[in-house]
Specification:
The chain is mainly alpha-helical. The protein has one domain (11-101): 434 Repressor (Amino-terminal Domain), CATH 1.10.260.40. The chain has helices spanning 11-20, 24-31, 35-43, 50-60, 64-83, 88-99. Helix 1 runs antiparallel to helix 5 (64-83) and helix 2 (24-31) packs across helix 4 (50-60). The chain is elongated, with a radius of gyration of 14 Å. Residues 1-6 and 103-113 have low confidence and may be disordered.
Length: 113
């Protein structure tokens, strides 16, 4: 399970909910999951399945990659850093602070490995 940090793990999802002024409960009902699930996903306490990602994107009228691809790249960077011996708690917070605002194309697009 990812270590919680202060930045949302899925910043695009958090930003979209804020932009729409949409409460977690409303999105959860539309996407067919618990309110706590949405909150846990945003905070990094849970990783959504591909099916749930799609339901969330559909509920928000967005492309799934727009909401989740940056965070997936960030998570890969964190995992690589941890494999190299960096502390996950420090790495999560540092990486997320520095790259959460990057657009997907700045991180290599959705085809990056």
């Amino acid at each position: 399970m990812p270590v919680p940090c202060h930045a949302p793990v899925y910043p695009e999802l958090a930003a979209e909910l804020a932009r729409l002024g949409r409460p977690h409960a409303n999105l959860a009902a539309t996407a067919g999951c618990a309110t706590t699930t949405i909150s846990q996903i945003i905070r990094g306490h849970a990783r959504p399945s591909a099916a749930l990602r799609q339901r969330i994107a559909d509920a928000l009228g967005r492309d799934v990659d727009d909401l989740f691809v940056v965070a997936d790249h960030v998570q890969r960077l964190v995992d690589l850093a941890v494999e190299q011996g960096f502390d996950r708690r420090v790495t999560d917070a540092t990486v997320l602070r520095r790259v959460a605002d990057l657009a997907p194309n700045e991180m290599g697009g959705s085809d990056a490995a």
